[in-house]
Structure formats: structure tokens, C-alpha cells
Amino acid sequence: MGGEFFMFSGGKGANQAVAAARMGAEVILICKTGDDIFGHRAIDEFKKEGIITEYIQQDASKASGTALILVDERGENEIVVAPGANETLTPVDIDAVTPLIAEAGILLLQLEIPLESVVAAATKGHALDTKVILNPAPAQVLPATIFPCLYLITPNETEAETLTGIKVSDAISASLAAEILLQAGVQNVIITLGAQGAFFKNDHMEIMVTAPSVNAVDTTAAGDVFNGVLAVEMLAGASWHTAISMACKAAAMSVTRMGAQASMPYRNEIAANEAH
């Protein structure tokens, strides 16, 4: 027997878009939903967040992507995803938004759409001199061709191990895993370490940024908050340490609340929390 049941808006790309929008960025979301109650609700909520939705497609032949998330008493989660319409976002759809990618300051990607579409978007972004950030989640092995297209990759411990074969648990092991990703062609690497914070490395420097200590009730979407906030701070020209620190603070705040998008802080909330 389980406990309480809640229904929240989510999806990795959607979560990252909302996190970025709440930090004040202009966000264009490229995705597909089903032509169903979840898809319509999602688009309505994106509009309320100020996200540009005119490039969201609705696929009448597929249900909107959904996830069943089990949260334990420590706030940790296990997630089963039914991709639905997410699976029908193709490289052809990516080609159709080439002008948007060219104009973007940052192209933020994750792995809840087909891998071939992620590769197509990263390749295009790199060719157009747009900074490409890949959050390689959910964890899977990636083709070698994608790494040289990435300005930044942001795996967590599990994802870093999937990509490099190194079990990551602290800054020392994170540095070893990051070096493999740098050698593969990525320009910058951030490995998120949950409550420990995040580790950054490139060819010139490496830093460990600690996360605030909080009482976690639900870690769902913490990584998405981190990535969305990080992208906005990078776009604003923040230093690596400042950008990662802000992303850690936002993610830490989000895990003290239930849900995915519902848990995401606004910039003024983070500032108010820092003031205390």
C-alpha cells in the first residue's frame, strides 16, 4: 500500500523550460504533446509561465508523455516514463526550427526525445555557433559524434557512470569522469552530486561548488531546475562558480517542495532566501 497521490505537470524539457522562464529568460520550447487533456493543459501552463509555445506541435495519434513517480520517505524517487508524443519529435522537426536555433543564446537539450533528434539538434546548434548544453538524462550511452558538439554536458552521478564507466561519488571520482568527457570533445563538464553540490571541470580549471543543506521531501525535477537556472545564469554572463552556485541554490529550494514544475522557485524567491 502506498501513501498520497498527486498529479503535477512535468517532463524534462518542459521542466527545464519552466525553470528558465521563472528566472526571467525568454524561452522557446520545441516539443510535441498529444492532442489530449494533458497536452492542452501543458500548453496552457507554459503560456502562463511566459514560455513561447507557437512551435509546440500536437500529435493526434499519440498520447502526451507521462511519468509515474514513486517517492520514498527520504524524498528520493524512481520514475517510469511513457514517452508518447515525445517519441515523434524527429530530425525533420529540428530542421524546421533552424532559424530559432541560430538566434538562441543557448540550446538546452535532454534525452526524453529520440536520440537521433538530440544529435541532430546538437549538431545544428554547434554548426550555428549556438552554445549547446546537454543534460544526458535519462541515462543512456551516447554516440561519440555528439560530444564535440557540446559546449557543456551536465550528468548526475549515475549518468556520468553510464557515459564513462567510472563510479562517481565525490569530487575526486567526478574529476576522473569529467576528464574522459573532455577527452571525448566536450568543452565543459558539470557533474551534479546531489546533496554534495556540483563539480565543474574544463581544460583550464576545476571547482567544487557545495549545495545548501535542506530537508528534502521530493527530489523530482531537481536536476531540471539546476539545468534551467544554470543556462539562464550562463546567458547573463555569470562566472562558472556563480552560475553553478545559483543553480545549486535553486535546486535545493525545489526539493523542499512536492512536484516538478510546482516546486520550481522564481528568482525573487531565491534572492529572498539568500537574504535570510
Query: For the report, how would you describe the main beta sheet?
Result: 6 strands, mixed
Mean pLDDT across all amino acids:
95
CATH architectural group = 3-Layer(aba) Sandwich
Q: What fold name stands as the CATH topology?
A: UDP-N-acetylmuramoyl-L-alanine:D-glutamate ligase
C-alpha termini separation: 40 Å
> Number of DSSP helices?
10
Uncertain segments are none
Radius of gyration: 18 Å
CATH class: Alpha Beta
Number of E-state strands: 10
Strands of the biggest beta sheet: in what spatial order? 5-6-7-8-9-10
- Tell me the strand percentage band: 15-25%
Secondary-structure content class = alpha/beta
Gross morphology: globular
Q: What are the secondary-structure elements, in order, as H or E? A: HEHEEEHHEHEEHHEEEHHH
**Could you name the CATH homologous superfamily?**
Ribokinase
Fraction of helical residues? 25-40%
**Overall tally of structural domains:** 1
Structure at a glance:
The chain is an alpha/beta fold and about 280 residues long. It has one domain: 3-Layer(aba) Sandwich (UDP-N-acetylmuramoyl-L-alanine:D-glutamate ligase). It is built from 10 helices and 10 strands.
Task: Give a verbal description of the structure.
This protein has 276 residues and is α/β, with parallel strands linked by helices. It has one domain: Ribokinase (UDP-N-acetylmuramoyl-L-alanine:D-glutamate ligase). The chain is 39% helix and 16% strand. Helix 2 links the parallel strand 1 and strand 2. The chain starts with 11 loop residues before the first helix and ends with a helix. The mean pLDDT is 95.
